Amino acid sequence: MHKKKALLITTVSGFVPQFEMNNVRLLQEMGYEVHYAANYRTPSYGNDNRRLDGTGIVRHQIDFVRSPFRLANIKVYGQLLRLMRRERFDLVHCHTPMGSVMARLAARASHTGPVIYTAHGFHFFRGAPLVNWICYYPMERYLSGYTDQLICINREDYIRAKRMLHAGRISYVPGEGLDAGRIVEMSPEEIQEKKKKLGIPKDSIVFLSVGELIKRKNHKTVLQAIAKLRMPEIKYVICGQGKLDTYLRGLAERLGISEQIVFMGYREDIMEIYPIADVFLFPSRQEGLPMALLEAMANGLPVICTDIRGNRDLMGKVLRRDGVLKYCAGGIMADACQATDGFGRAMEEMLEMRACWRKFGEMNRKRSGRFSQEESIRRMRIIYQRMGNNRTGGR
User: Fold this and answer.
1) Separation between Cα atoms, residue 225 and residue 222, nearest integer Å
2) Which of 213, 275, 216, 257 is nearest to 238 (CA)?
3) At what angle do helices 155-164 and 130-144 cross, to 10 degrees?
4) φ, ψ (nearest 5 deg) of residue 355
5) Can you tell me the distance from the alpha carbon of 316 to that of 52, in angstroms, rounded to the nearest whole number?
6) The domain 180-370: what is its CATH number?
7) How do the domains of the chain map onto residue ranges?
8) For a Cys staple, 106 with which of 37, 80, 206, 262, CB 3.0–4.6 Å?
9) Which residues pair with 8 in a beta bridge?
């Protein structure tokens, strides 16, 4: 008897343990043997693949590269094609840009399906560079014809996909959802002890960012803003790793603020880091639906973030506008195109509104409940059941 098999595909191997374990468990509960194709030589969200140990996931090395213009993609296509023909998967769920491109082409050629693609933020979006629209939109429009189920995780992408793409089905699922059980409640004494262990002075004003040290996450903007503030009591804690680590440390040194910046690398205890912060900063230029921002809101932190899709979904209604700033119930959004000036001004405003931080945090905690893990799982269960009951053998 043929055992049901589901294949998850991402470019880098850390993506599934970081973001997709709810879906893994859901598929396993539905009787699927879950396989995972990724480049295990390029782990992300950590330095190794240990988090996959003991999950029951069958791993397959695929030599993915991130650029669509590399000849190595021919090899990747061949590897996926052979894998699909050999294992005869009953379901394919792909993520990440190049992972989804290669997966859908190979699934089409091998008559494997149905194929689900979760778009964690299209590269063509309102305000994106023209080159993004020229390169990525035609490709996604073409490949949407090979997609049985397209999932969008923010409202802007969902509306655009319904209007401009032609996948078999298009659904909105608000990311993996918030696991409220991971929130760590800490007493004031425990918070101070955590700060002490991290070398953060007791009376510091702690701004926190969580995200990879890459250009898209835009930590540079905050460093420049802090340099202009000239407030040595501010400590900026950055949790994340990436190729800009050396550059950002050098920039902090050149700006004369290296004593104020705490580079903490990738943290497995991130839920114990949120409570030590006073304000959460999220300067990213491009997002789908950012889990770090959602977790910060659930931890009751006031927020300063860029005015981009995904962030808008989480922050909700704009109550007041003032130039490049938009004021919401739980914080401030700054124009992403004028991020340095906007973030600097937003940080000044937030410091002046210190008496409102608790109120902002409570509003964010309340709003984060709209993006629950339970709701995301409910929607994904419906999608998996529908796709499982309507096998197409590749569109």
Assistant:
1) 5
2) 213
3) 60
4) -65, -20
5) 35
6) 3.40.50.2000
7) 5-177+373-388, 180-370
8) 80
9) 36, 93
Spatial separation of the C-alpha atoms in residues 203 and 49, rounded to whole Å: 38
Q: For the segment 149-184, what is each residue's pLDDT rounded down to a tens digit?
A: 999 999 999 999 999 999 999 999 999 899 999 999
Please count the residues of the chain: 395
Residue 213 structure tokens: 């040290």
Local structure of 169: helix, strand or coil: strand
Token output for 169 = 């089905």
DSSP per-residue string spanning 357-370:
HHHHHHHHHHHHGG
3-state secondary structure of 305: strand
CATH number for the region 5-177+373-388 comes to 3.40.50.2000
Q: Give the angle subtended at the CA of 179 by the CAs of 213 and 379, to the nearest 5°.
A: 105
Model confidence pLDDT, tens digit, residues 293-352: 999 999 999 999 999 999 999 999 999 999 889 999 999 999 877 666 788 899 999 999
**Alpha helices, DSSP H, located in the chain:** 15-19, 21-29, 72-87, 97-110, 130-144, 155-164, 188-198, 219-229, 245-254, 291-298, 311-315, 339-352, 357-368, 373-389
> What tokens appear for 291 in the block?
């889990």
Distances (CA, A) of 15 to 19, 238, 326: 6, 20, 32
Global confidence as pTM: 0.90
Nearest to 104 by CA among 158, 142, 133: 142
CA torsion angle 226 228 229 231 (round to 10): 80
Spatial distance between the Cα atoms of 70 and 338, rounded to a whole number of angstroms: 33
List 118's β-bridge partners, or say none: 151
Query: Same CATH fold, 180-370 and 5-177+373-388?
Result: yes
d(CA 58, CA 314): 34
Q: Which two tokens stand for residue 71?
A: 């000849």
